[in-house]
Task: structure prediction
Amino acid sequence: MNTAERLDLARWAVQQAQAKGAGGVAATLSHSRSITVEIRDQEVERLRESTSNSLGLDIYVDGRYSGYTTNDLRRDSLNEFLAEAVAMTRYLAVDSERGLPDPKYYQGMQTVDLKTADESYDVLSSDERVALALETEKAARSMSDKIITCSAAFGDEFAEEVRVHSNGFEGTRRGTEFGLWTEVAVRGEGEARPSNYQDSSVRFRKDLASPEQIARQAVDRALAMIGQKKLASGRYDVVIENRAASRMIGILTGGMRAGNIQQKRSFLAGKLGEKIASDKLTMIDDPFIVGGFGSRVYDTEGLATSRRVMIDHGVLKEYYINPYYGRKLNMEPTVSGSTNTVFEYGTRSLEELVGSLKRGILVTGFIGGNSNAATGDFS
Result:
């Protein structure tokens, strides 16, 4: 099934659901294909391929809402499926805030090519996938005689989505992803066996880091952990490495989601326009980064996206507000969730930051840990 055929089927599903009594309908047809190769000791440990096709439906009937998904895309089967979906929705409780977005929020959608799909995706062969993973593991093993175990993996995915709403929205998007990864464990002091990893994830295969680059970084990171010791409890200045920082960023963006605010689970509720962080913190949500993993011209509910400054030099400027919780909070929708989170850079490198500490900790990863979304406390 090609893009035009998916679009035609989505339109048909919307029309059929309405004919069976639905007031509003959103249909999403999704197709994806993913392949993963895992290597250990220069042998293929796992080779996995999966392909999926599905139809997702949001159905609104007399103030009631429900969501359904099916993998059976035959129209005869869908006719029965749609009839049952509409009928079952009628049994649910009325929620007056449920409904498709106002069509005015579909307006202004950008037509820019965000280059999220590698058109040469289908050219990649299984032999090439295996060879990349083998080469990465082999390179890592050759870099130190302290290596005990080593594994590597290569994976790729193609995904396409077609979305149609009964009140006028239509959109399509496609994306690819390629990833190369390795992990090594090394002989440490005594019984210690420190391990670490490195990966490269990109939209376009040509942008992948080389097997040698990935292997060298993984080995260097593992070797750097030899001799680690426990620290005494106390107050420390902390530098968080960029690849570990997503844990903290997730806590921050979670507090900016309208659902958490409405349900009293956000430490940022009621703080729009207030200073919540250092002057040095400016956080931007930018859906228009070419090749970005979160890049999109419309969000998960069809709202046209735009670049937004969420935190401006420490001042909270925006929330992530979808139409449903926007109605509950009596606030204008912005975007249903984060796209590409961008920070204004400082002027010092990681080495300079660490060198500036008299007594501190460099965090390269978290083990466990949790947070209280209502207070912002982090353990």
Notes: The chain has eight helices and twelve strands. Residues 131 and 154 are 9 Å apart (CA to CA).
